[in-house]
Sequence to fold (293 residues):
Amino acid sequence: MEKFVQLTLSGVANGAIFALVALGFVLIYKSSDVINFAQGELLLIGAYLTYTTVEMIGLWWPLGVIVAVALAALVGVLIEQMVLRPLIGEPVISVIMVTIGLSSLLRAIIGAIWGVTPRTAPQFLPRDTIALFGASVSVDRLWAFALALTLFALLTLFFRYSREGIAMRAVADDQQAALSMGISVKKVWAVAWAIAAVTASVGGILLMSIFGGVSGQIARVGLLVFPVVILGGLDSIPGAIVGGLIIGLLQSFAGGYLPPELGMGEVAPFIILLFILLIRPYGLYGQRIIERV
Fold:
């Protein structure tokens, strides 16, 4: 029972972080039909920017985190304006290839600025353990889950009550109708990339604190975005949350109960991805699109 509780809480905390990163992926896809293969590098950018502002510059860590997240949002806007906006009207495969190239470019830029040697990161989350349901649980996982839930709540309020959030929902529903109502689709795309960069950065910061350092391992977590969004649905925000929790629990249980030499903790999410693509390619909550020819 103790091991089950530990794996469950760890899986839920990891799943909340996965869902944060997947949320940015879904927002970009819903607003602009772009599949962003560089989401993992946005995680890494947020982590390294936080390392720079807090460790290298020496800012008080709450201020350093805010500055780092703001800079990451600016990076997201610049990517949208300089790389993707010129591709409006181009074939989907061209945009996909550009985001793949963007992933390699961002990784090279990160390596050129910060190097490839892992850096010891500041600890924002407490590393103590507490007894919960008879199991010893790390407090940093609970904090990560709570912070992820808080960000989800803030984003929900943003989408429901702010003008920009309502405009994003309109563009996601019908771009032509949104244009006819005077909504700037290009502005919405820029906001979507900024939010995607912010959610990825927060996920990267939480992972940096949990891992105790910042390195390319954080970007590898971005690979799990794809099983999450395919499972939940490419165009579904609730699906990103549900998919993140399912993949987080699956990874935790597979890694905890199966022999470690099998490496199923890393492989299991992609096995599920394969089955979802074969059985329900539009995901649990994704919109089913039927084209007649």
Q: What stands out?
A: The chain has twelve helices and four strands. The two ends are 55 Å apart (CA to CA). The beta strands are 119-120, 129-132, 135-138, 213-214.
